[in-house]
Amino acid sequence: MHPTLLNPLALHLANIYITTLSITHQISISTSFNSTSISSFQENQEILKLTEKMATKLNMLPEDCLSTILSLTSPADACRLTIASSSLRLAAESDTVWSRFLPSDLPRIISRAHSQLDFSSKKELYFKLCDSILVDGGIRSFSLDKVSGKKCCVLSARALSISLSNEPNHWKWTSNSASRFSEVIELKTISSMQIEGRINTENLSPNTTYGAYLVIKVSDRAFGLDSIPSETSVSKNECSVTNTAYLCPLENKRQQLESLFFMNRRRMMEKRVVEGEGRRPSKREDGWMEIELGEFFVGEKSEEVKMNLMEVKGHQLKGGLIIEGIEIRHKC
To answer: Start and end of every F-box domain (predicted)?
Structure first.
């Protein structure tokens, strides 16, 4: 049933219920920093009572009408409802609801899957996509953000353009048990390094701001990686945003002392590159580190985005960098 065909009462109940869910979500966020507050507890209790009342009223509607109403909410709201009201669980788990949360180009995404996707419901398919699937012969991964349903993807090292990547004297293709991909690439030794990834915005969600992140590890044998900052950029059409980044985190006293010892030299070398923040890698939950290359906005039309990291001005040998790929995910 199309939303415009709902009767006035159903539309009225839908608007109230969606507003209630929104208020519930906002209060849960605002009180999460003070879970012991008595007033916060009372507010949450009032919201729960209001939600239960709305659930009782909505339960009087036909199931197809109710499913259409719930499809106007969000994946998080639908999951919350299955817990809050057993009487509405069937409607909240229906294919009508979860089809609305899946991407409009779902058939194309499934056709790109590296292996067959087995699922018994649209909800199961949604959460399989949230866990990420390999696509395009296994050199890219695709996923959905669990809360928003926004598209995300990772370009593996094989999907990137890396200078001299097929020269065994400079790079080594290898496996890594912590990677989702069959191969990662490790830098042996090189003096100039250029890494570029490209993606078409048709593979992302429209009207969304995305961040691009280089996913890396640094081996114990690493050398020369931060003699000069690397330059990063994200480009779309004629617009390009540049910055600088270091490849090694300052996570122990030895690295911090080395940074202080070579500070004067580093400041002199920094004059060779563009001005930037000198970003450092941050740890990820999957055991890797990431460096933000930049961000960009995806509109309604299809455009190509280029994401780069390069260090070509230091002319010093470097090695020990392990690259899994570039992740593109929406920014909250």
So the answer is: 55-101
- Which among 305, 304, 303 is positioned nearest to 293, based on CA atoms? 305
Instruction: Calculate Rg over the CA atoms of the chain.
Output: 24
Residue 61 structure tokens:
């509607």
Q: What is the pTM of this model?
A: 0.79
What value, to the nearest 5°, has the Cα angle with vertex 256 and ends 253 and 257? 85
What is each CA distance from 235 to 125, 304, 322, in whole angstroms?
Answer: 33, 9, 24
Mean pLDDT of the chain: 82
Who contacts 123 (Cβ-Cβ below 8 Å, separation ≥6)?
93, 95, 97, 98
Per-residue pLDDT of 188-236, as tens digits, reads 999 999 999 999 999 999 999 999 999 999 998 899 888 888 999 999 9
CA-wise closest residue to 235 among 308, 169, 137: 308
Alpha carbons 48 and 79: distance in angstroms, whole number:
15
In terms of Cα–Cα distance, which of 204, 205, 202, 153 is closest to 328?
Answer: 153
Helices 8-30/75-84 angle, 10° precision: 90
Please give the Cα distance from 278 to 247 (Å, whole number): 10
